[in-house]
Amino acid sequence: MEGKKVSFSSFIRSGNSFLRKFIEQCTGVYTGSDMPLYFSMPDQVMGLLGEQHFDDSVWITKTHSPMWNEPHEYSADKIICVNLNPIDVIPSMASLFMTLSHSLEVIKPWNEYEEFWDPFIKFFAPHLEEYHKKLAEISKDTPIFYLTYEQLRLNPEPVLIKMFEFLLEAD
Predict the structure, then answer these.
(1) Residue 44 — φ and ψ, nearest 5°?
(2) I need a labelling partner for 137 at 20 to 30 A (CA). Which of 47, 79, 87, 106 fits?
(3) Nearest to 120, CA basis, from 110, 109, 106
(4) φ/ψ (deg, to 5) at 32
(5) pLDDT for 97-118, tens place per residue?
């Protein structure tokens, strides 16, 4: 692990905090994040203490790059990418925008927010597509391990074993 950097990338609201907790609980090592502190107070309260640490003090750094953050002066030897079904990630992102909370949900069904919902989908769907295109381009030079939030929820052990084999280059 010495000198090896891992970028933990995800589209916003795709399960990155959930996986970070698993990683930290399995290893006892905190993960970093390139998110500014003013965005990440809920993560710190939840116990994710590595917010705004993306230097050599952390092995794995959470990011929403290549899409949302300006690239920082760190590079990764490997990338972990967690995904959530787009049918779920877009409403989750919309809930975040409407409630300004990671845990609250909107009260009415989405079809009753037509003035918000239609423009929101038109805005975010292309960003989601572009995010995955950029990751595909990055994967030509940097190995990426893909997993889904759904895998973690249904049966975390096999996917976590495979992820750690990828990270530690073990068989």
Answers:
(1) -65, -40
(2) 87
(3) 110
(4) -95, 175
(5) 888 777 788 888 888 888 888 8
